[in-house]
Give the backbone structure.
Amino acid sequence: MSGPSTPSSSPAATPSFAEALAAGPVVLDGGLSNQLESAGYDLSDALWSARLLAEEPEAVVLAHLAYYEAGAQVAITSSYQATFEGFARRGISAEDAAALMGRSVELARAAAARAQAGGVAGPLYVAASAGPYGAMLADGSEYRGRYGLSVDELERFHRPRLEVLAAARPDVLALETVPDADEAVALLRAVRGLGVPAYLSYSVAGDRTRAGQPLAEAFAPAADAQEVIAVGVNCCAPDDADRAVEIAARVTGKPVVVYPNSGEIWDAAARAWCGSPAFSGDRVAAWVAAGARLIGGCCRVGPETIRELAAALGR
């Protein structure tokens, strides 16, 4: 059986996303929310950056553009918290919600076109973000997992929006910030037959998922999932990413994706970040040596850090 096709809006000669990973390290973007917040947008709403898909689409384009111009080759869309259920709570119909999810891919494509028109070289890709079930709840459970739902129930939640995102023809589906191995199994089921490759990325603490499963066990189901072209971690401490890259490569034999947070800590009581950043381009060489091929940053990692990371990778 052949694997999924890798769509692209670029000319036929453009390498597919899987081909780009096979050719060498690819630079992901950084945190979309911190880039939007730095531009003055309030993302305290339960829809987070997905709210701006309807209200301020140009702001989303400019945020993506900043990362492309900094050296990122891949933009992750603003659909992390975009779900039919979440939009419905805001009075948005299923039809309009689907249109907004598709728009997230269109906006990233628009940013890529502007970047290339401005002189950014090489093919630029779009990863359509699908966050975990807990992101829709907006209660912090995305960092705990264990929602009390079965794998079948989680699959039924994820499949409809993954179908919509796949129909928008991104280069890859980003199954990201997954806290729980059970949810990962549901996501692996939900991407079957969509015709778009995916990567699976856990949020971790130490050498375990946020729900407490050993990473070696959590990564294992992705090894035989032909839709999945990369496996790894994101939205974690940089130190935790170091060990996770090696485990993901060893267990799955696939290219590894890694994009940790800055290393700062969120103080929920004070509603402020504290501590000092611990993520820099110095870590990249060790990640690449361990098998990382898709490398970027998550929360609190901005364009300047991505510029440093891209330079370390020769971008």
In short: The first helix runs from residue 17 to 23. The two ends are 35 Å apart (CA to CA).
